[in-house]
Amino acid sequence: MKQNYDTVELSADKTQRIKAQALIEEICDRFNLHNYFGIFSVVVDEAMDIIYNNTELNPEFKSDFIFEQCVNGVCFTFKTNDEIFTAVSELMEMLTNEYNILDQGKTLELIFYVNGIDEADLKTRQNHFKVFFKSKSTTPEVPSDLHKKEI
Questions:
Q1: Rounded alpha-carbon distances, angstroms, from residue 27 to 36, 40, 68
Q2: DSSP 3-state helix, strand, coil percentages of the chain (rounded to 5)?
Q3: Domains and CATH numbers, the chain
């Protein structure tokens, strides 16, 4: 039987990010959601940026990163001991079906519908995802004449 929930604890140490990414990978394997791995990873990484780029992050910071299978799909939740979440990024808004900031900013829920997702919604998400990565690309283009050898 597949376990429909899981939790990992995160601290103020930025190296803890790998624990959250490992849980996403394990969830995608467990529920055969490989097509969603990139979207889940990007959104969760954006949430962790909110946490770890906070200049006032308390050294005693703790967060439970929770996965739950729900009726329409999956939910990833950050439950923290500090008021961290005041807003979400534009990318998070575009790639999630729902998000909720609760407990005066101590909790962030990221909800993804994966059962019977509308084909148009999936296509839109994939396009947003492609645009995001193209804009993040820092690889400079090589002029085509550099590939020619002089004889």
A1: 10, 10, 10
A2: 45, 25, 30
A3: 5-132 (3.30.565.10)
Task: Classify 51 as helix, strand or coil.
Answer: helix
What H or E segment, with its residue span, contains residue 11? strand 5-11
Q: How far apart are CA 105 and CA 103, in angstroms?
A: 5
- Inform me whether the pLDDT recorded for 138 exceeds 60: no
Question: pLDDT tens across 65-122, in order?
Answer: 999 998 788 999 999 999 999 999 999 999 999 999 999 999 999 999 986 556 777 7
* Six token digits for residue 4: 């429909």
pTM: 0.76
Contact 74, 27 (CB under 8 A): yes
Q: In what helix (H) or strand (E) does residue 73 lie, and over which residues does it extend?
A: strand 73-80
- CB-based contact 84:38 (threshold 8 Å): no
